[in-house]
Design brief:
The protein is built from 15 helices and eleven strands. The protein has helices at 22-27, 54-88, 109-121, 131-142, 163-172, 180-184, 202-213, 238-245, 256-266, 268-272, 274-281, 285-288, 290-301, 305-328, 345-356; strands spanning 4-7, 19-20, 100-102, 126-129, 152-156, 176-178, 222-225, 230-231, 234-235, 248-253, 336-339.
Length: 359
Amino acid sequence: MCVQKWPGSAVFLNFQVFAAISALTYLFKSKPPPRDYPGAPGFQSAERPRPENQKHSGLVKRRHIMKRMKTMLLGAALVASNIAIHLRSCFADRPREWTPLVYCWRGGERSAAIAHVMARVGWRVHQLEGGYRAFRRMVVEALTTLPARFRYRVLCGATGSGKSRLLRHLDRAGAQVLDLESLAAHRGSVLGGLPDQPQPSQKAFETRLWWNLRRLDPDRPVFVESESRKIGDRQLPEVLLEAMRGSDCVSLELPAPERIRLLRDEYRHYEQGPERLCQQLSCLTALHGHTRVERWKALAQGASWDALVSCLLQEHYDPVYRRSIGNNYRRIDQAVCLPINSADGSDFEQAARQLAQIP
């Protein structure tokens, strides 16, 4: 069996399973030697010994070679031990069809070692040349140009109008969608954190975004939800944000009672744990004052959910939305209006089919 190598700058990683074995990077990690250490790979001395020092230089050279061999021997033993640990534990139940991607931080010796062993076992192994550092550099560079290649249709609408729900139905209808809130694991507001699902790191979010963008067809429109600069704690690339803000808009309109119904359905975890909701509402004290926030908390603690959602929409979310959308999305005044009768899935399915047919 052979190991297929992929350059760290490769754009197409067509694996059956995209399994980046980060645990290996951690277990095999060792502090890289300084550049002026002769045992470092690729080391070349910038000085040449003078004739009278050639004998001493030869002794030093032999001593450095022995140090390097000893270091390599210790490193090889550590790597071999870690490979055995992984083969007996987390890799033991992997099927023959498993297709792992193995990488180091920047080098390749440790990942090459385990890739060789895994290939001999019978798995179809891929190794990322240049390591994660080269891959990360490629992702960062791609996100400065890739988002600008697409024609976006931005779904706008007040909180509770069903933008995320419509996006999911558009996906099922065969339209191209970029679900940023799904990639960021956050719904984009002070109450937008998902239960038991932390946000990915900024780097992981950017990798997810790049992975989704590169699969899109530039000749077809891409539906995306209007977002601010940050989704939770994750920041959107500037190029993507500017492309979205200059794109055509679709304005969703849902009756107020249906907005309340939709929000209660999607944020049901707060009704099951009102103490967590009250904790998040405290974040709005600086903006709305203690008296108003305490009134909201009292509604939550008394399970007056319809009244609470109505107050939050009228007193916080709707005013914030009106200010933000007008300041940031330049074509909102020319937005296509899309009325949706109710929060029922059938109505959103019909709206998605209608919207997907617009060229």
